[in-house]
Fold each of these.
Amino acid sequence: MCLLFTTTSPVLETWPITSVDYQRYQTLAITRRGPLVGGVPSVLDIQMRADGPGGNGKLPTAGHEGHGELSEIWRDVGRDDSVRCAVLRGSGLGFSGGGDLALVQDMATDFEVRTRVWKEARDLVYNVINCDKPIVSAMHGPAVGAGLVAGLLADISIAAKSAKIVDGHTRLGVAAGDHAAIVWPLLCGLAKAKYYLLLCDPISGEEAERIGLVSLAVDDAQLLDKAYEVADRLASGSQTAIRWTKYALNNWLRQAGPAFDASLALEFMGFAGPDVREGVASLRERRAPRYGTD
C-alpha cells in the first residue's frame, strides 16, 4: 500500500497522524511503502520532482523552493516516529540536474539570497549527517548539485551503472563547497577527490563504485528494486543498533566539519566574484568558460 503526500493527491486518514505535514513540500513527492510498523508503512520514499516549482520538466533542479525543501526534509524524517528509513530518488531523465541558473544568478547579485542559500547549503549537509534514520539514495542519469549532496551523503548510496555524477562547482567559477570537502576524500581518497573536483570530469555509476564514491552500482533496470530492498532490510532491523551505528560512523564526517565550513564559505565568497558571472554566461550560451584566457 502506498500513499502520496502531495497537494494534488488525497491523503488517506487510515494511518496514525504524526506531527509532520508532508503536504507542504512542493518540489518533493513523498510516499510511504515498506514493512508495516503498527499498521504504518515505515519507509519514506522521497522523489525530487522534475515538474515542481523551478523545475524544467526533464530533471529535478534546485531552485529557490527546491533547495530549501531538500535541506529541511531530513529534520522531518528525523522527527517522524513512524519512519524507519528514507529512500531518495530523482524523476524524469535523472537524479538531479543541479542548481537552477536563475537561483545562481540571484545568488551572485543579491546578498540576502546568497546568505539564505548559504544557510540552506550548510543545513542540507548537517541535516543529512545528523538525521538518525538511515537514508538510501537511488541515483540514475545525471546526478549534480544539491541532489548529489544528499545522494552521496546518504548512508547507502546506490547508482545505476550509467549514472553520470558530476561536481561542477569549479566549472561554474566557484569553489567546490557543498559536500565535497567533507565526504569525497573519505569515500574515494584525496587524490581522486582532487582530480574530479578540480577538473569537474563526469564519473559513471560503475566507476563511482570502483573508486568507492558510492556503495553500489547496479544495472539501470535494477536500481529502484535494489534501493527498496536495502531500505526494507534497514526498516526491519534493530532500530537502536542501526541508528547508533550510523551516529558513531558519522563522527568521521563531523570531524571534517571545519574543512566543510571553510569550503562552503569559500564557495559563497566566489558567488560574489566575477568568475561566476562568466560561468553562468557560458552555461547559458552552451560554450566553454573563459576565465582570463583568450
Amino acid sequence: MKKLFFQLKKKMSQKTRLEDYILKTDFDPVSWEFYKRQEACDWSAEEFRFTKDRDDYLDSPKRIQDLLKDIFGFFLIGDGLISEDLVVLIQEAIKEKNWPKVMYLSMQLKVENTHAETYSKAALTIVPQEEHNQMIDMCEKLECVQKKGEWIQTFIDSQESKALRNVGCACGEGIFFVGLFSIIFYFKRLNKFKDFIESNEQISKDESIHRDEKASEAKRSLLPEERERALEIIKSAVEVEKEHTRYLLREPIISEQSDKEAAMTIENLEGYIEMLADQVSVLCGMDIIFGTKVNLPWMEDINLSQKTNFYERNVVGSYRKFNPDTAVGGEQEKVSFDDPDEEDF
C-alpha cells in the first residue's frame, strides 16, 4: 500500500505541482485586467421586467412586431453558441494553468448566461405565447440566422490556431451582435420598449469588453503568415452579417421617408458593419480593411459613441460596481490597450 501511495505521488508530481494552482495575477496581467473590468460591470436579468414592453408590443404595427421577433431569432441562440466556445477556451486555459485567463473566461461565461437569461425573459414576456413558435422556427429555418450560427460553430471545432480562433470570436462579439444593436437602439425613436433598449445598452458594454479581450489575445499571438487568413475571417463575417441585415430591413421600419431621413437604410447599415469590421481588424493589430465612414444620428440620442461601436471605451456604465483601474495590480503599472478611437474610421 505504501509503495502504491508513493507511485501515485510520484506520478502526480510529474504531471503538476500544487503551487501551480496559486493565482498569480502577473502571470497574465492583460487577462487579469479584463477580468476586473468585467467584474466591475456585473449585473442581473432581474433588473428588467419587460411587462410594459409587452404592452408596447401589442400596441405596435405588425412590421415592428415582426422585426422584433426576427431579432430575437438570433439573440435566443447567440449567447449559447458563444458559451459553447468559451467552455473550450476555459479547458485550454486550465491546462496552461493560466488562472487569470480562467477567471476572465469564467466571468465572461457567467455574463453570457445573464445575456441568455435576459433575452429569453424579454422574448417570452414581450411576445405573446401563441407567437413563440415563430421565433423558434427562425432559429432553425431562417437561412441568414443559420449561417450566423454555423459561422460561430466553425470556430468551436476549428483546427485553426488559437490566434485565428480569437479573431473569429472577436468578429462574433463585435460584428454579429453589434450590428443588431444599431437596429434595437433605433426603436428609441418610437418611445417604446424601454426595458429592452436599456438591457441592450448594458449588454452592448459587455460585448465591448468581450470583443476587446478576444482581439487583444489575437494581437498577442497572431503570426505574420496568419494575417491574410485573419482578414479572410473578418471579411466573411461581414458578408454573413450583411445578409442578415438585408433580411431585417427588407421593409421600412417606421416608414420609407422617416427611415431615410434618419439614415436607417440598408446601405448605411452595411457601411456600419464595415466600420465594425475595421475596428476588429485594428484591435487585432492589423490595418483598416474598408475605410468606410457612416453617420448614424440616432446613436447620439442615447449618448453612446458611434466611433467605438457606441460603446463606452472605459466601461463606465451606470452599473459599474467599482473602478477597475484601482483594482488591477495594486501599485503595478497599468496595462494599456489599443484604442480604435485613435484610428480615423
Amino acid sequence: MSEEAEEHDCDCPPEGLPAYMGTFADLMSLLMCFFVLLLSFAEMDALKYKMVVKSLDDAFGVQREIAANEIPMGTSIIAQEFSPGEPRPTPLREIRQDTMDETRDTLKVKLDAEEAAKKVAEKVAEEIAQEAEKFKEALKEEIKEGLIDVETELNRIVIRIREKGSFPSGDARMNRAFIPIVDKIAAVLIRTEGQIAVAGHTDNVPINTPRYRSNWELSTSRATSVVHELLRHGELPPNRFVLEGYADTQALAPNDSNENRARNRRVEIIVLKSTMVDDVSGSIEALTTGSDAVETEVSPTN
C-alpha cells in the first residue's frame, strides 16, 4: 500500500482549534468586560465602613490588661468576650494592651463605696445615740413628769414637747413656767450639730377663733413660739432652723379618745443628722464613674 493511501485512511483530528472555541472565547471576553464595568461603577461608602469597623472594635475589644502568657479573664461574669489588642512594636520589649473606659473594674469600686457608706452610717447612728443621751440627761426630770419625750428615728433626734404644761388649750402663747425647760433644750442644741426643724401638731378638733382660723394656724404659731424662745439668747444661728406646721395631718395615735388627742397635741424639735450619710451616698457615683482607664506594663517571662 502506498504512503498516500495510509495517510488517507488515518483517523486523526483536523488541524487547528475546534470551531466552538471562537464562540467560547468571545463569551469569556464579554463576561470579563461586564465585570470590569461593574467594578468601575461601584462606590465605597467610607462612613458606613468606619461604623462597621468601630462596631467590631467595641464588640471584640480588650477588656483589661493581661499578661501575654495568661488566658484572658473577665472582671465580672457578664464580660465574656475578649480578644488581644492590636500589637504595637516597641524597642523596650514590653507587651502593652489598652483597656476601654467602659470595661473598668467597677465591681470593686462599688463594693468599696458601699462599705464606706455603711461605716459612716454606723458612725452617725452611734453619734445620734450619744447626743440623744445628752438630751435625756438634761431633761430627765421633765421626762419623768411626762412633759417631754426624747426619741431617735433613723438619722434624727426627736424632742417631743407635749401640750401638758407648755401651752394653754387653743392658744400658742407659751406658759412662763415652761420657758426654763426650753432653755435647757437650747443649751444642748448649742453643742449639737445639724439642721433643726420645729414642727407643730394638733388634734382633729376644729378651731375658729379671732386669733386662729384653723388648726393650721395654731400648729404653726406654737412652733413659732418655740423657735422664738430658742433664739432668744442669740447663741443659736437662725439659719439652722426650719419651721413647720402640720395641724392634725401627722397624728401619733387615732383621735378617738381624750388621751390620744392630748398625745397628738405637741411640738417636735427635730435635729437632722443626715448630712454625712448624704455626702457619702453621693460620692458612690463619683467613685464608679470618675476613675480613668489604666495602662500597665507586663514584662515577658521565659
